[in-house]
Design a protein that fits this description.
Length: 121
């Protein structure tokens, strides 16, 4: 099971921390990623991290603003979203894969239900 939390309504420039609590998966055995889908758009990769943390891949649109971290004992993955912009508004998903080979939604097998992030003034 994968459960996201921490979304909500924020103003431009503000920050949010999204959490993804997993059960049945070890954060150090699976590749994980954060994805998002805005209305009328395809789901896209935000950031992905390999099981051993040797590979971290950020979308260009979030580089320098978003950061991924994980707490393996707590089975929790985090997305630290800073300096939020209007265009960051989307449903954010946490997903897991045995081995993803790229931060694309089609490479990920297990998904949370998603959580809404809205950036609005």
């Amino acid at each position: 099971q994968i459960v996201e939390s921490g979304g909500g309504l924020v103003q431009p420039g503000e920050s949010l921390r999204l959490s993804c609590v997993v059960s049945g998966y070890r954060l150090d055995y699976y590749d994980f990623g954060w994805f998002r889908q805005a209305p009328g758009k395809e789901r896209e990769g935000v950031v992905c991290i390999s099981y051993d943390e040797n590979t971290v891949e950020y979308a260009d649109s979030v580089k320098g603003r978003f950061f991924i971290s994980k707490d393996v004992p707590a089975r929790t993955l985090y997305l630290h979203a800073n300096s939020l912009k209007f265009e960051d508004t989307a449903v954010y998903y946490c997903a897991a894969a045995h081995r993803a080979f790229g931060c694309m939604p089609s490479n990920y097998e297990y998904w949370g239900q998603g959580i809404q992030v809205t950036v609005s003034s």
